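To close the section, here is one more complete example, presented without commentary so you can practise reading it yourself. The ligand is 2-oxoglutaric acid.
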Amino acid sequence: MVEVIDGFMDAATCEALVELARPRLAKSKVWDIATGSEKEDDYRVSEQMFFGRSDHLTSALIALEMSVREAPPGASPEVKAYDSPPGVKAEVERFRRERDLIRSIEEAIESTTGIRLNHGEGIQVLHYNPGGYYKPHYDYFDPQFDGNKAVLGRGGQRKATFMVYLNDVEEGGGTSFPQQNFLAVPKTGRALFWKNVKEDGSLDPGTLHAAEPVVKGEKWIFTKWLREREFI
Ligand SMILES: O=C(O)CCC(=O)C(=O)O
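Output:
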């Protein structure tokens, strides 16, 4: 039921993603089905951040590029005086490298899963320190709860989950699937892929899963949830 794909990502790409995510982490929250919003809860102890999806990053990059003023070669000093400061161009380049990295990962997920890139939510990077965990939960949104209506309106159900371990964990930190008696062990670049709904479209409770406590070392992963339709 859970597909394990070793070597989905090379170590350098995993490290590059971690370094981009590291300064942007915030405490993880859990989804509250009663209110349809996030709340703090010790059900989950980790830090996280989301990257924008690459097609959205591309639109933002085009706007950024258009905002850079650079006079053509040979322009007079008076005209060149209106050039954007060098820091602006460096920022555009930094943004382009981030877009390229995210796009390459998202394209690899698309070709591995056969699910279109624009069905994906943004890549979510998670970081666990020793003692960090996420108790058993489902990734799908149960439509019987009113709090899930709005989030389901943004592209339908999370029909599948694609997750990648971005480092080796010294001890603990596996991903357990209690209904399937299965424990995945973190390993740099190893991906897990599973479907949260059955062939008939019903929710699959066998996908219950948990992040086991990290005992030693730290743990980095990313998760990408894939919707039935374009995620908006
Ligand atoms: O950290 C893990 O191994 C699992 C993460 C997870 O279950 C989630 O982000 O929904």
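Once you have examined the tokens, check your reading against these statements. The chain has a mean pLDDT of 96. Residues 126, 134, 139, 175, 209, 211, 221, 223 surround 2-oxoglutaric acid (CB under 6 Å).
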